[in-house]
Amino acid sequence: MEGRNDDEEGGSSAIFSELKHYCIELLELRLNPKKNSSTLSHLLQLLRLSSPVSLQPFFDFTLLPLLLLLDAAVDSRSSPGIDSNVTPHTVSDIVMEDALHCLEELLKKCCLGSVDQFIELTKKLSRGASLSPLEASEEFREGVIRCFKELLVNLRCCSSESCSCKQISGWPLLLERKNLHSPPVSKLKFKDEECLVAFLQSETASVAVGNWLSLLLKAADAEAARGQQGSASLRIEAFSTLRILVAKVPYFSFPSCFSYYWLFEFSVIPS
Fold first, then answer.
1. Which of 60, 132, 172, 270 is the most buried (most CB within 10 A)?
2. Alpha helices in 158-231 (DSSP H)
3. More confident residue, 52 or 158
4. 207/194 Cα distance (integer angstroms)
């Protein structure tokens, strides 16, 4: 993978060939979590070396096995149903931490293609974000939040001047610009009704927005309650993600249960 040049003829085929190999390995890893595999580290290297333009055509293909791993990891940590006699395959924290690094890099490089895909992805991430410190490692839970942050950062306004997405005024002042990358240039052509930022601001998404506000604040509060054993890094990620969510969604679109005072009273980054 040294000196990858995505402009060379056949570059896309080469990337797809590698991605296909790694994705098949990930599907096998999901069925056999105890398998010792370096697939995730190799996949992460490939994602980091590849350009957004070269990865975008294979976004869905690469996303699927990573989300299946996330589902399996969350299921194995959730309380089984009363009538359930099936024990889910246990995906270790170490495996999921590596998988979340891959997912974060993928979301950093690629754009979502539809509102339905956005809804599905946020639902799966919210399940991971709801895990308690007793159910998952700090790195696992922080990785989920970082993935959601990249998802938000990569949402950009559409080309329609009359779209409600134009109400966004910029990034929160307290966020350091060096910690935010510039979203890749999308090659996708969305219809006006497919503007993901406008959807995030809509009444339809208000419940999901409220849920994520709650999850982020609970994650930060859980670490604070653990005292010196709590993760300052996780708290900072939770609060910085909260500020990005605030920047993407105008205050008047928040569920009524979140007042301005309550939101900012609890969104102070720990020193």
1. 172
2. 196-201, 206-225
3. 52
4. 19
